[in-house]
Write a structure and sequence with these properties.
The structure is a homodimer. The first copy, chain A, is of the alpha+beta class. Chain A has ten helices and 24 strands.
Chain lengths: 431, 431
């Protein structure tokens, strides 16, 4: 979709941008132009640069905020660090700010020259690859989000923060990130190995101390899954699985096995811990929904969003991110009046399936209190639901989400931000 | 173009990948899988990460390799640091490795809260923007290369290195980089300011001590030019113009004014130093070609390339980058036999106009000495030339390029890499 109408709206309304016009005399004199070089930066920044010292956007989170497993003692440390989506520009997440969820110790310190990838199990020819071997093969480069299935959940240990009025976009939605990933299609390696009759799943295993493994249907492995060594034009960062990780586009983050060392072809899933205890969705009847992998459509306005402040009435482009595990985002609607009216937002192309998609919506703030909301639709026709609709799906009342201790995964409700009269923005998730 | 045939070729030839097949017994035992966690990483890497300590790709270059201007003393320090293209993955250049060419001191240490952008000159309403003002406007996000007009020149102070057998892709072509840039179209700001009749050029000026300025035709400013504040999903890095730079897609790097503080609308170019002394192309008759801005089609094989070594005969994907200031790359051909035969390479999509484009070509090395070359064609129909064709254009003999001290800009000749019998790769640029 073109950005023309946004620009036209700005041109029409531009005069209301506060403090924008300058007296010609002042401009001609140039007295306002004082920023210039004052400090010599260290020489080694020529070899490998750093961001400006004035940029201080960081991941936030903590170690051990989630329930600890006690056997073996101190073995698993679950922790999550969130991407500062409120500062995001475009659709890519800088690698140093990619979210981290880890069930185990810190990232392993892997020497890539000593790392191998093994393809084995129900195959005719087990294969062992060094990193150099993989770099010789035809690669693909794809833009994809990776998202924790618990992202934006109003429940569980971080639910109270996420529901609170002071939550920002990092608190509410920071367990998703989007990168350009480069690697080798899993289908290529599996075909080379020769998958045997009766093979139905693959088990991917990481090299970290916890040896996280995940069972994935072989159909997905032969579809768009790949083994990534590159992230945003360089080697994958340690927190994202250096030197190799699985990329399972559109599926829960837990599938995208980091520090990948082994893919075993099998006839049934292994039912490892993450498949049987925490990641299945527990139903009210006591049964669990297992292997619910594909993430639904979701969106969040990142600017203006919780914790930010409008400097006064006037023109603002409302900017946000939308994504879906089902495919491409085809429609994003924005409401600036508490949900009475929804208008089509403009998509900032190019767009990619199973990737963050940036949208923009021209808005003139009149200084009154209001709500800002966005709603995404994907190319499967699935529409981002309200809290009430999610509650109905789970056959609970909406206030259930305020009381349960369980993380309700796949929570993709519409996110409302409240604009106060003083321009401050607050979380207004309504249960 | 699809990658299918590359993959098929790999599947057909895969067995020749050295050291790839594994004995089933060894695989089942898993004795080869030793890489795992051994070291705890510092805690602050949770807030803002770093690359693995095993990754050591850096920019190379030096301060003051180019002729110094002596008046005022020590005022201008020309220096260049090159992107390690031989290590590139996909099309994006990580921000810490984006090439740097600077005519002046180190990057200024600008506080974004004190930085302004002024639009003035032949406009009805001079405008002054803070960074926050700009962030309120409708933005665009585009993938573009920025390239120095002297990139890959075999002449000038670094010509001898570039011509030598030990040059790698960083030495030969490292003054180009590609990023995802986010910013505000210049056309939007100029329309808002109201361009007066008779205005034909804009002058863009940086905030650094040297106050580099550049005159650009207003047609380009109203076309695809934009004022960027974002690079690869975060604020532009200091070496690339933090907090604002001009993005002039497809044109010589010198136009992409960094640390941008001012755009003046005028009726004729200012004829600043970079327009009158160094950047025009000197002709043999003593006249100079001024304002030659758009860069032609160029390509380079990055893997395998100079300084790398093939581990033995077998399958290799030849991988490289192609780009053109004229628009999109429409065809890339590869020759693996010294230029006798040229075959179509596969483009690794998605592709963007005026951006690096990744190509791949399935190759089976038989262990003999040979030459690898690539040739790009853009959507204007322009074809990357041979050295002989460039010499003919300049009306010189090819060996002229070995003797002149002047940087011959826009040198986009086909780059040959020589494969020796021992698998080592050398620069084979032929004059």
């Amino acid at each position: 979709m073109e950005k023309v109408s946004d620009r036209r709206r700005f041109l029409k309304n531009g005069a209301v941008l506060a403090g924008l016009a300058v007296g010609a005399a002042r401009a001609a004199g140039g007295e306002t132009l004082e920023s210039e070089a004052t400090e010599i930066r260290p020489k080694d920044l020529h070899a490998y640069g750093e961001r400006s010292r004035f940029e201080n956007s960081i991941r936030t989170g903590s170690l051990g905020t989630w329930p600890q497993l006690t056997s073996p003692p101190d073995y698993h440390k679950d922790f999550g660090f969130r991407t500062p989506l409120q500062d995001s520009i475009g659709i890519l997440t800088p690698a140093p700010l990619h979210y981290i969820v880890s069930h185990g110790y810190e990232p392993p310190d892997i020497d890539p020259h000593e790392h191998h990838l093994l393809i084995h199990g129900m195959v005719d020819h087990p294969l062992l690859f060094t990193l150099e071997d993989l770099r010789r093969l035809p690669s693909v480069t794809r833009t994809h989000f990776v998202e924790c299935n618990g992202n934006s959940a109003p429940t569980g240990p971080t639910g109270a923060i996420r529901r609170g009025p002071n939550a920002n976009a990092q608190d509410t939605h920071g367990l998703t990130s989007c990168s350009v990933w480069t690697g080798i299609p899993t289908s290529l390696l599996l075909k080379q190995a020769g998958v045997q009759a009766g093979a139905k799943w693959i088990i991917a295993e990481g090299a970290e101390k916890g040896k996280h493994s995940k069972s994935i249907p072989i159909e997905k492995a032969l579809d768009d899954m790949f083994i990534a060594y590159g992230q945003n034009g360089e080697a994958i960062r340690p927190e994202q699985g250096y030197p190799l990780r699985l990329l399972v586009p559109g599926w829960e983050g837990i599938n995208n096995v980091k520090w990948l060392r082994r893919i075993k072809v099998v006839d049934e899933p292994v039912m490892a811990m993450r498949e049987t205890t925490k990641y299945p969705s527990l139903r009210l009847d006591g049964k669990a929904r297992w292997f619910q992998s594909q993430l639904g459509p979701k969106s969040v306005i990142t600017r203006p969003s919780g914790g930010q402040k409008l400097s006064g009435p006037g023109f603002y482009e409302i900017s946000g991110l939308a994504w879906s595990g089902g495919g491409a985002i085809t429609k994003i609607e924005v409401s600036t009046d508490g949900g009475r009216n929804w208008k089509i937002a403009e998509v900032q192309g190019p767009t990619y399936p199973k990737a963050h998609t940036r949208f923009g919506f021209a808005w003139e703030w009149d200084g009154t209190e209001t709500l800002l909301q966005s709603r995404a639709t994907d190319d499967q026709g699935e529409v981002q639901p309200t809290v009430a609709e999610i509650a109905e799906f789970w056959r609970v009342k909406p206030d259930f989400f305020q009381t349960t201790d369980t993380v309700v995964g796949h929570f993709n409700a519409i996110q409302p931000w409240k604009v106060n009269r003083d321009g401050s923005i607050q979380n207004a998730m309504n249960f």
